[in-house]
Design goal:
The protein has about 775 residues and is an all-alpha fold. Among the domains are: about 5-230, Serine Threonine Protein Phosphatase 5, Tetratricopeptide repeat (Alpha Horseshoe); about 710-765, no CATH class. Helix content is about 75%, strand content about 0%. The chain contains 41 helices and no strands. About 45% of the residues are buried.
Length: about 775
């Protein structure tokens, strides 16, 4: 019948004893006896679930916990255990929902928040795509001021949205992250990736699963909390930044226009009177300075719609849009302010921030570089201005064309940080002054190159002193200053550069070259190809025959797309190997150079020159067949190249292919006849005949060449020898033809040739 309290308590005690001994089977039997007395006892059901879990009967354990939870729905422990069992059963999503419910119970009962956090983390471990757990952790981390963790949850939600095909929500999650940390690099990388995928995103790419509510629905109205946590982007935080300074200037300019009787910001399109326009602008200024953003936006819009076209109006409106995260509208207004020198810096910087927030990293970088260019050129001497301007052109090109997005993002983050701290203007002036001292006799350095250096002020002072010591030949004092600077900033390459220059002055060229190459390698890794090239070229100037350095230059030029420059250095590298008798390395370098000629503006002259070098090396290595192939390439692209023709004749004879050699001899004679340079060919033919005096074909061509040139005596000499060779070879018909040719030339002893001819004809072929 059940209901026996004493029996129930005895069974529960027995179950507790078994559980203590981890005798889960015995505990399950005891809990079953207890439940037979009171089937709806929560403790007995919970204990039964624990015992069944101990013996691996997961389904039965889950049912026990489920019944207990129905009886005590506010117990977070029961929900947690249901989650654990469901994990064991491989039901990750169900487990996650149980953990989330457990966390909610902890919060509602005002129990320890850290337990709720643990349950949300358990939920994500069981089912990484649990949106509720990510959203709850996001809100918690915001409230606790744990910015990085909050941003991490935003990024997790963004990836989850993207996996479900909710591309717009993925972007919104990143924008929410920007509320928390406007400068977080991972968010900007993610935004850039989403922008690239925007056009390709389709529903077919989504994974299975129900759509997830938008982030605003998941985390609730927490935007204001996020702004308070992050400090926002406006108010005090913007005061000393370029946009803050430009904003103050814009307000002053607009206020001044209100008292100017001769001038008004009216563009003449709206038809409003000056009094009406002044009223609108005055209202906008008032609302803006009092921090009433929405009212200020409305007032600025009204002034512009009424016909006002002052760039200050567009700048201020863009800044208000930016602070309200209305980035697209802010971008349009900032663009309208660009072009006016008074607002160029602030508009460029604000535009860069907005584009970066929208994930358009390349576009934002372009405007940030322009902002820094304005600052740097404004602090530079007139002598350096033009060089720095070109430097920033190259910097923009290299960063914008670089495949290394991390480098571009790192530069952007450093720049934004530099321009967002108090006193950045004074620091910019000091940095420029130190750089002028450091580089007065060398390539310019920009503020951009110094942004990432820690303790830059102290570093620049040490470098300046080191340079002064080296001028006084106090080399070790200069090195000591450099090493002091390295202690402050070990990764600062200008310090290493100064050390290398001191070693040059000390005569330690090998050490200096090694240092310059290492510095060039570092610059190249960082994506600064201009400075990398300068370091390699400096090292090469110290050791022109250093093939290792020249190889670095080639790699850099190829990476930069300067194939013409790379070609010149490839040939220089090959020549260096050749002069040092490293033929294999020389030929490899020439072959690389040959490949480059097909991708450069170099004409066939370069290609022919390189092929001749390769043919010469193959000939020296007695790789005659390969040499023949090389010279044939030359003959195809430069048919009139007599040098290649001569080389082929010689090689064909060496390979015992006289028939091929004769073909080239014919070509050689033809080229010489067309060019009117037969004298050079005669000496060549004579040289070949000295080496092969019995070669009938070669002798025949030589005799005919002399005949064609009207040189009767030389022709007779070779025809006479040719006839003898033909008779010795039994080629009687050919011999008759040769003798007839001699007779036609009427030599002094023509009768003897006539008699010989008659005798040959009388005897027939014999």
């Amino acid at each position: 019948m059940g209901g026996n309290r004493k029996a129930f308590e005895g069974a529960m005690q027995g179950a507790a004893n078994c559980a203590w001994e981890r005798d889960w089977a015995g505990a399950a039997e005891a809990y079953q006896r207890a439940l037979s007395e009171f089937p709806k006892d929560v403790n007995a059901l919970s204990g039964m679930g624990l015992a069944l879990s101990g013996i691996g009967e997961w389904e039965a354990a889950l049912e026990a916990y489920r019944q207990a939870s129905e009886l005590s729905p506010d117990d977070p422990v029961l929900l947690e255990r249901m989650g654990q069992v469901r994990e064991q059963l491989g039901r990750g999503q169900e487990a996650a929902l149980s953990y989330v419910a457990s966390a909610q119970c902890y919060l509602e009962s005002q129990q320890a928040t850290d337990l709720a956090v643990k349950r949300w983390q358990d939920a994500i471990a069981a089912w990484p795509e649990c949106p509720d757990a990510h959203a709850c952790l996001l809100t918690h981390y915001q409230e606790q001021g744990q910015t990085n963790k909050a941003v991490g949850e935003c990024l997790a939600l963004s990836r989850l949205y993207e996996s479900r095909g909710q591309h717009g929500d993925a972007v919104l999650a990143c924008e929410y992250a920007l509320l928390i940390d406007p400068h977080h690099p991972d968010v900007h990388v993610r935004m850039a990736g989403l922008q690239r995928e925007d056009k390709e995103a389709t529903e077919s790419e989504a994974t299975e699963g129900e759509p997830i509510p938008a982030i605003a629905e998941l985390v609730g109205p927490a935007r204001q909390v996020a702004q308070a946590t992050a400090g926002g982007t406006g108010g005090e935080g913007r005061r000393d930044s370029p946009v803050g300074l430009t904003h103050a200037q814009a307000l002053a300019s607009l206020a001044e226009s209100l008292f100017d009787e001769e001038s008004t910001p009216n563009g003449g399109n709206g038809g409003a009177s000056k009094a009406e326009m002044d009223a609108l602008i005055g209202r906008a200024i008032d609302r803006d300075t009092r921090g009433r953003a929405e009212e200020a936006i409305e007032a600025y819009q009204s002034a512009i719609q009424a016909g006002a076209e002052h760039p200050a109006l567009h700048f201020n409106l863009g800044l208000l849009y930016q602070e309200g995260l209305r980035f697209d509208e802010a971008i349009a207004e900032y663009r309208s302010a660009i072009g006016d020198p008074e607002y160029e810096l602030g508009a460029r910087f604000g535009l860069g921030e907005c584009l970066r927030a929208r994930g358009r990293l390349e576009e934002s970088l372009e405007h940030f570089i322009e902002a820094l260019r304005i600052i740097d050129l404004g602090t530079a001497s007139d002598e350096r201005a033009a060089e720095l301007d070109q430097l920033y052109n190259r910097l923009a090109t290299s960063l914008l064309s670089s495949a290394d997005r991390d480098a571009a993002l790192e530069f952007t983050n450093s720049l934004v940080t530099f321009l967002s701290v108090n006193g950045w203007q004074q620091k910019a002036c000091q940095a420029r002054s130190r750089l002028e001292e450091l580089t007065h006799d060398g390539p310019a350095l920009s503020i951009a190159e110094m942004l990432a250096i820690s303790d830059s002020e102290l570093v620049l002072e040490s470098l300046s002193r080191a340079q002064e010591y080296s001028k006084q030949q106090l080399f070790y004092a200069g090195l000591e200053e450099c090493h002091f600077a390295l202690g402050r900033s070990p990764a600062c390459l200008p310090i290493h550069r100064q050390i290398a220059e001191i070693k040059v002055q000390m005569g330690k060229l090998d050490q200096a070259v090694d240092s310059l190459v290492a510095i060039g390698d570092s610059y190249r890794i960082r994506g600064d190809l201009r400075q990398a090239a300068a370091m390699y070229e400096r090292a090469l100037g110290l050791t022109p025959m250093n093939t290792r350095v020249r190889s670095r230059v080639i790699e850099l030029l190829k990476a930069a797309g300067d194939t013409d420059g790379a070609l010149r250095h490839y040939i220089g590298l090959a020549d260096a190997h050749y002069q040092q008798a490293r033929m294999d390395e020389a030929r490899d370098a020439y072959e690389e150079a040959l490949n480059l000629t097909r991708r450069t503006s170099a004409g066939t002259d370069w290609e022919v020159r390189i092929l001749h070098k390769m043919g010469d090396i193959d000939t020296q290595r007695v790789d005659w067949k390969k040499a023949v192939d090389v010279y044939r390439q030359i003959r195809r692209i430069a048919p009139q190249d007599d040098k290649a023709c001569l080389a082929l004749i010689d090689l064909c004879y060496r390979l015992n292919r006289p028939e091929l050699a004769v073909t080239e001899v014919d070509s050689l004679i033809k080229m010489a006849q067309e060019a009117g340079k037969m004298e050079d060919v005669f000496s060549t033919l004579e040289r070949f005949l000295e080496q092969r005096p019995t070669d009938i074909a070669l002798r025949t061509r030589t005799a005919q060449a002399y005949l064609d040139s009207g040189k009767k005596d030389q022709a007779l000499e070779h025809l006479d020898r040719l006839g003898d060779l033909q008779l010795e070879a039994g080629r009687y018909e050919d011999a008759k033809a040769t003798i007839r040719a001699i007779v036609m030339l009427k030599p002094p002893n023509v009768e003897s040739y006539q008699q010989l001819l008659a005798q040959l004809e009388e005897n027939g072929s014999g």
